[in-house]
Amino acid sequence: MYPWKSVLLFDPLINRPKYLQITDNVIKEVTAGRLQPNQKIPGSRKMADLLNLNRKTIILAYDELVAQGWLEVKSSSGTYISEQLPLTRYSKIEYSDGQQPLADIDFPDHYSFIPQFESIPSSAIIIDGGSPDSRLAPMDWLYKECRSLVKSRIGQRLLSYNDVHGDPVLRTTLAQYLSETRGMNTSADNILITRGSQMGIFLAANGLIRPDDNVVVGSTSYDAADWTLQYCGGHLQRITVDEEGINTDELALLCKKMTVKVVYITPHHHFPTTVTLSNKRRIHLLQLSIRYNFTILEDDYDFDFHYKSNSILPLASLNSGGRVVYIGSFSKVFAPNLRIGYLVASKKIIADLCKLRRIIDRQGDHVMQRVLAEAIQSGELSRHLKKSLNTYRQRRDNLALLLTNHLSDYVDFNLPEGGMAIWAKFKSVSLVALKPVINKMGLYMDIDRDLAKNLNSLRMGFASLNEKEQEKAIEILVKAIK
Ligand SMILES: Cc1ncc(COP(=O)(O)O)c(C=O)c1O
Questions:
Q1: What percent of the chain has pLDDT over 90?
Q2: Can you give the pTM of this predicted structure?
Q3: Ligand 1 pocket mutation, candidates 126, 268, 304, 331, criterion most atoms within 8 A of CB
């Protein structure tokens, strides 16, 4: 006898009529292959008795299932699971974890270099790779503005399908803002609003790289950019990174040997080592891009955070040869979850990349984009930046002090001039061996990345943890190491 009572169990706490809950459960059983086509089911009276429900409820459920084609009534013999359903008669669907059917997805090889990502318990202390502290961000202000905007006529329009380039008001405001803060000479037509820098990297890489193109990156570089560039078929050619950033003399030699299509770079604070590309090399790089006709993909992910002096102007501000595609983001300014970034390039490149964006993501969040424009215009953004810059400077110094005082035998580092992380080289202790020990003690760090595994080094973010939290994290680390 089919276990109707347990299978068709309805949940009194769900705000959905009982007859529809029964309908849902029958459909689930049929699609899972546990109820088979042409299988007889109990009549409404019997089913009502079995489930201890009113017969009217069962009749309503059966009528609904008949109307949807899941059941059929054969006059004189009873009610059956429909014979017409396109289900393999005796197919058995396997389940993993009791939930997900196992689908056989034939992923191409080029996914193999992208790692699996672990989930981190919500109670853990995380020394991240350099994220902002969203507790400092004016999130109340942003969401309050969003709420009042959607109540207005303009907001209603923004909630609909809109321009794939992004909100025109944000693009115009941003063009002005980039000119004032970064010396970049652009207009709204040169800007595509993305969902964070990562989408910018993806779009630019897809647009610029064809299979087997040579793409130059640093000997250490941002791994998620590496994955994207390789995914697009790029052959990564690595050049040394030292205290002045990527070695442009090595790049010049490489350009003599092979055609270079793209150079991906994080010149403001090199990822992961945090060094700033020297002026001499900036100029050399731009000259090489003109001479050898390659595109510079400038990922300026943390422009706003430089503690020694004012932020250094991006390569894009010296872009006389038009070879720089510039990528920026609000992820580090407010919170990574905002997912709003931008790509700045020639009108032609923007127009082409918009076509690509159209097929992977119809558009971004136009409401939040308009509110960001307001944050820039009203000065809310610069007030927040000023405040967080001071806080992050103190947190950088605090983490540096903790490392010096408690872990100098185990960690080497240079104080970064900007960004949100210290590049820490571990010695006489293996990060890979340390990982399970600290995880057990509730501390998580970016150890799964190849950078950490291969170089026994990692970025220790200082911005997202306050002084107390940093002390707690280092206390755990010290205990685990010693
Ligand atoms: C160098 C670099 N580029 C890009 C990104 C991606 O940033 P977003 O959140 O804007 O996609 C990150 C994130 O940490 C990063 O470190």
A1: 76
A2: 0.82
A3: 331
